[in-house]
């Protein structure tokens, strides 16, 4: 098995400063190129809009990216999407894209407590070389909601007995290495591994490269694989993508 997976908060296609490119699909096209050029076969994306005024009333961003990948790679890219928040009109959420066969297993809302936005967790089943694995993506909140939401994810995975499966979770923790949220993802209910890279900025790095890493891959069940990870020095949104390689 040899594959590359990407985790990336794409900030609804905005520029890193929060403005929008013209056309509004320009950064989506750049994201497609990064996925293709990085030889990625699965992408976990956060902050993905669908049919909103701000990002384009006719644009479902996950569908747009998947369709563009199909056209330029010749592979049957598909996507699964979860709504975190209903907009007026449209939706805001997370997505997983894959050119392997994929089905949705869990869609878990992560309601806000102290912060302003509900968040979500999406888990899919992906068949790679006819072997099943579980790929999840998350986007946690702010103002202390991260810890509660991380506990919810780990408790649900335990309840559905995913602790003995091959599982990869990639997403935006909105908290740093060594935080309570971080240790919940590692240790709550059953252990997972942070596959790094450690201590590398992923948020607002164009402004200050000493900023913390808040985007992560947590995995379980891949002890026999050669695992490498890297933060790609790309500042399309305010987050940098992480690429995970398994061989």
TrEMBL record:
Pfam families: Exo_endo_phos. One of its GO terms (biological process) is GPI anchor biosynthetic process. InterPro entries: Endo/exonu/phosph_ase_sf (IPR036691), Endo/exonuclease/phosphatase (IPR005135), GPI-anchor_lipid_remodeler (IPR051916). The keyword Transferase does not apply. One of its GO terms (molecular function) is exonuclease activity. Residues 7-239 form the Endonuclease/exonuclease/phosphatase domain. Keywords: Endonuclease, Exonuclease, Hydrolase, Nuclease. It comes from the Bacteria. GO terms for cellular component: membrane. PANTHER family: CALCOFLUOR WHITE HYPERSENSITIVE PROTEIN PRECURSOR, PGAP2-INTERACTING PROTEIN. This is Metal-dependent hydrolase, endonuclease/exonuclease/phosphatase family.
